[in-house]
Amino acid sequence: MSYKIKFGTDGWRGVIAEDYTFDNVRRCAQGYASYMLDKGKSGEWVVVGHDKRFGSEHFAAAVAEVLAGNGLKVYLTDSATPTPVIAFAVVNKKACGAINITASHNPPSDNGFKVRNETGGAIDPQGLKQIEAGIPDSVEEIKRKVYKDAEKAGEIVKFDAHTPYVEHINRLIDLQPIKDAGLTVMVDCMWGNGAGYFPRLLEGGKTRIIEIHNQRNPSFPEMKRPEPIQPNIDVGLKATVDSHADVLLITDGDADRCGIGDENGEFINQLRVYALMAYYLLEIRGERGAIVKTLSTTGMLNKLGELYGVPVHETGVGFKFVAPKMIETDALIGGEESGGYAFRGNVPERDGILAGLYMLDFMVRTGKKPTELLKMLFEKVGGEYFYDRIDSAFSGDRAAREQTILDAKPETIGGLKVTQLITIDGFQFKLEDGGWLLIRFSGTEPILRVYCETRHGDKVQAILQDGLKVAGLK
Question: SS3 letters for the chain?
Fold first, then answer.
């Protein structure tokens, strides 16, 4: 019996050499190829890219062989490439989709298989089910064309995805004022694909860019995983203080997520960063348009929507929900709790590089440091919002645990009255202060996540601990 491949929030991830093998990657590629052929895309181009994890370039080449064997043509990136750059390449090259070999923020033991459609954005849940259903049980059912033969026939073409993306970014944002500002910007590349982008985009002025963790090292030293949250970013936060930098920009392993540290070496959590991004677009750039948010992100967005008269749409967790809603509503911004933000005028995909540049532009246009920008935001939305999350490995039957959560029916959580239970994605308990507790299963790992946001900083841990009790984890 062959290994059953299940697609999660963003494709498939597995442990290298255990379940993430060449045979299984080829099976996934066959499922994707069959999906594209069913959509009438025979003879069209697919972008294939990869990150800096162990063996990623070789897995990408294996994918290219399978696509070529199925009558599709492949633009293969000539080096490790950020997810947003691959997404832009889909549109720039008029390709019908993309496959990206990356496990994003997962531990070094893992690799992954991300899929994208013709917009460069995530494929919707129905499309993911179709791809998964098309994955053959046997490697004998895989069609392949030898790489050299496909390359010789012009069916696999290596290309530079980086230069067109840099040109595109320069059309979205005037970088000259940032270059001239004389900022000191610390950049933690987390050993990933974002290395080199901020220096390349901002060279030639008074602003100084200092990169750390900018080499290839698939073991990700000095962090548990390339996820832009603590404790993984503690080295970068310390380096920010040591270098007297004005801000820390952090890109995760495939550079689709952005983390921010302030001038004091303190982390600004992802929910606050999302609110800052929306505030910047609405207030500083004067733009208007819908905001798309997952239910696990901040209520400050709802407040900003009210203040600026723009609609706010709430979705399940993952860009497979956010991207389609952004396209449907021509949204100004879309994002999620993990630190992924997408912007109108760009592709409907998270872009940690553009998010970092927008943060710098926000600082330059206002003349304010990150702590001062946060103060501006809190004054606008009527006070501080506090957030935290706990990730807990779980064992046993998922359905039984879901029933445990449903049966709990708590009247209060963290001392706050529960006003509503929403089950769009996981279990979200709305609280009387406008905050919330969310319990949901990870779409990519055997982990139960417990998150909360509240207006009461002194109640965060009590809310989380009550959440663990509701989930039967303590």
Answer: CCCCCCCECCEEEEEECCCECHHHHHHHHHHHHHHHHHCCCCCCEEEEEECCCCCHHHHHHHHHHHHHHCCCEEEEECCCCCHHHHHHHHHHCCCCEEEEECCCCCCCCEEEEEEECCCCCECCHHHHHHHHHCCCCCHHHCCCCCHHHHHHCCCEEEECCHHHHHHHHHHHCCCHHHHHCCCEEEEECCCCCCCCHHHHHHCCCCCEEEEECCCCCCCCCCCCCCCCCCCCCHHHHHHHHHCCCCEEEEECCCCCCEEEECCCCCEECHHHHHHHHHHHHHHHCCCCCCEEEECCCCCHHHHHHHHHCCCEEEECCCHHHHHHHHHHHCCCEEECCCCCEEEECECCCCCHHHHHHHHHHHHHHHCCCHHHHHHHHHHHHCCCCEEEEEEEECCCCHHHHHHHHHHHCCCEECCEEEEEEECCCCEEEEECCCCEEEEEECCCCCEEEEEEEECCHHHHHHHHHHHHHHCCCC
Superfamily of domain 173-381: Alpha-D-Glucose-1,6-Bisphosphate, subunit A, domain 3 (3.40.120.10)
CATH superfamily of 12-162: Alpha-D-Glucose-1,6-Bisphosphate, subunit A, domain 3 (3.40.120.10)
pLDDT tens string 188-212: 999 999 999 999 999 999 999 999 9
pLDDT tens per residue across span 32-82: 999 999 999 999 999 999 999 999 999 999 999 999 999 999 999 999 999
Domain boundaries, the chain: 12-162, 173-381, 387-470
